[in-house]
Amino acid sequence: MINKHSPVPIYYQIEQSIKNLIDKGDLKPGDMIPSEREYAENYQISRMTVRQAINNLVNDGYLIRQKGKGTFVASQKIEQKLLGLTSFTEDMKARGHVPSTLLLDFKKIDATNELAVNLNVQMGDALYEIKRIRLADGFPMALETNYMPVQLVHHLTEEVAKGSIYQFVEQRLGLEIDYATQELESSVARETESELLNIAKGAPVLHIKRRTFLKNGCPLEFVHSIYRGDRYKFVIDMHRS
Ligand code: 16G
Questions:
Q1: Between 208 and which of 110, 145, 225, 228 could a Cys-Cys bridge form, CB atoms 3.0 to 4.6 Å apart?
Q2: Residue ranges around ligand 1 (CB below 6 Å)
Q3: What is residue 13's predicted lDDT score, i.e. its pLDDT?
Q4: Is pLDDT above 90 for 233?
Q5: Integer Cα distance of 221 and 152 in angstroms
């Protein structure tokens, strides 16, 4: 499996072969992989070379090192296609995961200048401010802070915010969600974010800002989300027209 005469560096060959085993499902999330010493002995190569391969896979989120225990296959990242305008609940269900929500805060606030501009309301108008941890199969994936005009989304309750807000808006209020603009930026977890998402302070995260509009052009929501970088990836299909 390892070709020492190939121009392809040996660490890269090892990296690819472990990656293949994970992609094919021969190595599953939670499986422990052999130690650096075992790889080095099996392939008659230096431990430094093995370490380089494993470090790369840890950095790419394929493997996780646990002090004193070993190196394990990480959970596969959840893939979200940036095509349709979907909700967290729909995304998770479509991928066979069970969505749930931990409601951290639900209150009404006065629109600040920034929020008023983004939601096309007057400064001081009443907005819902909803903070939620979004989970897949019980694991925290994202932290969301959602702002919506109270005058538009009547009767929103804590109970609703524990489930799908999009479903409530469409099915109960009969409003038509049309399109959104979204900004994605890489960032690192700050202290409170790391605690809520159960990751190390400074771990990579994706910061997303979404503005969603109704068919009549009214902004429905302005949302800040922090997604775990080790659990989530966004995929974009691009067509050359
Ligand atoms: C997604 C949206 C968020 C929206 C939520 C509704 C991103 C980055 N954000 O998390 O803007 O409020 O879905 O989800 O995708 P819900 O219907 O499950 O409450």
A1: 225
A2: 87-89, 144, 146, 164-167, 208, 210, 212, 221, 223, 225
A3: 92
A4: no
A5: 10
Task: State which fold the 78-235 domain adopts.
Answer: Chorismate lyase (3.40.1410)
Q: Which of 106, 148, 160, 210 to mutate to test the pocket of ligand 1 (most atoms within 8 A of CB)?
A: 210
Evaluate whether 79 touches 231 at the Cβ level (below 8 Å): no
Distance from residue 227's CA to the centre of ligand 1 (Å): 12
Residue 58 has pLDDT above 90, yes or no: no
Distance 147 CA to ligand 1 centre (A): 12
Q: Beta 99-110 vs 126-136: how paired, if at all?
A: antiparallel
> Whose C-alpha lies nearest to ligand 1, atom 13?
87
- How is the chain split into domains, by residue range? 10-73, 78-235
Q: Are 141 and 78 contacting, i.e. CB atoms less than 8 angstroms apart? A: yes
CA of 137 to the centre of ligand 1 (A): 17
Q: Which atom of ligand 1 is nearest to the CA of 99?
A: 18
Which whole number is the average pLDDT over 47-69?
A: 89
Burial of 26 (0-12, 13-18, 19+ CB in 10 A): exposed
Kindly report the pTM of this predicted structure.
Answer: 0.76
User: 10-73 has which fold?
Assistant: Arc Repressor Mutant, subunit A (1.10.10)
Mean pLDDT of 15-36: 90
